Amino acid sequence: MTRNMNLQRLNKNNEKKVNFFISFLCLIIFLSFTFVNKGLSQANVPELDIDVTEGVVEPIPVAFPNFITKDFPSSLIASEISKIVKNDLLKTSLFRFITESTYISDVTSIDSPVRFADWRAINSDLLLVGNVSIINETITIKFRLWDVVGQNEIFKGVQFQGPSNSIRRIAHKISDLIYSGVTGEGNYFDTRIAFISERGPKNNRTKRLAIMDQDGANLNFLTNSDSIVLAPRFSPDARKILYTSYDTGKPRVYLLNLVTGNLRSFPQLPGMTFAPRFSPDGKKIILSITDNGNTDIYTLNLENNSKKRLTKNVAIDTAPSFSPDGKFIVFESDRGGNQQIYVMPSNGGSAKRISFGNGRYGTPVWSPRGDMIAFTKMYKGNFHIGVMRKDGSQERLLTKAFIDEGPTWAPNGRIIMFFRETAGVNGAPSLYTIEVTGRNLRKIELSSFASDPSWSPLLN
Amino acid sequence: MKFQKIVIFTCILFTITNCSETNGLFGKSGADGDPFANISQSSLDYFTNELGDTILFKVNQSVIEPEYRDVLNSQASWIKENSISSITIEGHADEQGTREYNLALGARRATAVRNYLVSKGVPESNLSVVTYGKERPLRICSEESCWSKNRRAITIIEGSN
């Protein structure tokens, strides 16, 4: 039985303008259910089931033999792909890889029956086997993931195909399949991060809009260092970025189309504009406008340019973020005396305060799952990244530092990226990730300072 | 050569002109005994350093403290006397706040100064405001001694009639 499903076919257009956005280049992926499950399923053997919502998880031992290859060029590609997959999975702290020298079985074909006893003998819970070939500069990778404990295949055999410049994306898609197959959580490896790359001393920082893969690869700069730029935000289709720039001397919101390179400004908006985000349908933006010293929240319809004012008072109302169903807006306001988090209907109307702990709260951002809101909390001289339910209950602080700020959610709603700024005359920001469980804090190693991350939706 | 002479003459003239507006090595050697006399009272240097172009704010506040009213009163008088037609007020915040809130707070501070100057007779149309939030700290330590200097509004003279 063979069933090929062409998932995605994106054309290469306007390459000069968009060569920074490799993710949309011509990646052709086939998921094929070519392989019949040859595993000996045994109903009574417990299946592997990892719950990432639990606080502490012992990493799963994985056997990952070298991909089978027939020639030297394929073996180079194969080793590059395995390196990326291993790096992705290791960073979850959910997996560890068993040293190859201990393997008992040789894997010569991915269709051969698996000798589960040999893999259990080296204490592996998972076995990942695959082969890589290159024909006419097209890379084909087929792989299978076996649950060695349950002795069954976690998903049917999968095949990816693409040109050589797509190997990183193919590798991340493999990581996503393994991660979601084992945890039941959504994908997040095949994604990008928009952020602000910073250089120079603290009182004369230069800032550039930058974009990279989720793992830090394929870094590209989208602006030069002439103007201060702040807080990029991805569109729901990951093809556009909203950000704030001082290009005119004042903070103003811009919309950059990553595919065409077109830059749109909004001259019809008065005063200073900042803190933009897209609506979930991508048709509107929500932002703060400061006019005559007062900062309120507005939406702007991108199709007919109509503007709607959602808050109207002398308080600071800023940092708005839509709920994923588009029905509500979470934002911060000092209307009650100091900075707190409020929720209002998406067409404005009465706002309800949801943060009631000690300290000040800012930069709320709704989880893509809709259940939680991440925020920055300032309390007793420290900053925290935290999460609460959308009604403000069950507040949990995940981090604590001199400055931890600006959370952004991975598309699966399990991981939060933010920036941490160190104190003092040499203080500088870096990007970090942490899971909503509060586990697995990790710094993203980059060659420059970095702040204001925005995690893209899943790429197509 | 004629051209060379012109260049040299221009250079000398420039140097003399320049000297007349520069402080000497041993401080201000005023002709009439006034310590500020050698700085022309219409110079930008006088505005910035003698009157003071900056006022400071308390944490998360944008209220103009009474101690800074004299500074702003002098700014207003000077701006009117010198027919300054283009003034920008920059508002800043310390690093102890989130980026968006600090942008809004800096705008509040700059606007408070603008409104004060307007109340003292500076035409509103000559004033513009910009917020830098926490993007441009003056002092870079992470202590109150620096933060207190960073919570500021600066009056910047852009041009005159």
Structural features:
heterodimer; A: mainly beta; Rossmann fold; Neuraminidase; 41% strand; disordered N terminus; B: 161 residues; alpha+beta; 2 domains; 5 helices; globular
Characterization of this structure:
- The complex is a heterodimer of chains A (460) and B (161).
- With 460 residues, chain A is mainly β.
- Chain A has helices spanning 15-18, 72-90, 116-121, 167-183, and strands spanning 4-8, 29-32, 60-63, 95-97, 126-135, 138-147, 152-163, 192-199, 206-213, 220-221, 229-234, 240-245, 252-257, 263-265, 272-278, 284-291, 294-301, 307-309, 317-322, 328-333, 340-345, 352-353, 360-366, 372-379, 382-389, 396-397, 403-409, 415-421, 429-435, 442-443, 449-455.
- Chain A folds into 2 domains: 4-183, Rossmann fold, CATH 3.40.50.10070; 192-455, TolB, C-terminal domain (Neuraminidase, 6 Propeller), CATH 2.120.10.30.
- In chain A, a hairpin with a 5-residue loop joins β23 and β24.
- The model of chain A is unreliable at 1-48 (pLDDT under 50).
- Chain B is of the alpha+beta class and 161 residues long.
- Chain B has 2 domains: 1-38, no CATH class; 39-160, OmpA-like domain (60s Ribosomal Protein L30, Chain: A), CATH 3.30.1330.60.
- In chain B, 42% of the residues lie in helices and 17% in strands.
- Chain B has a 4-stranded mixed beta sheet with strand order 1-4-2-3.
- In chain B, 35% of the residues are buried.
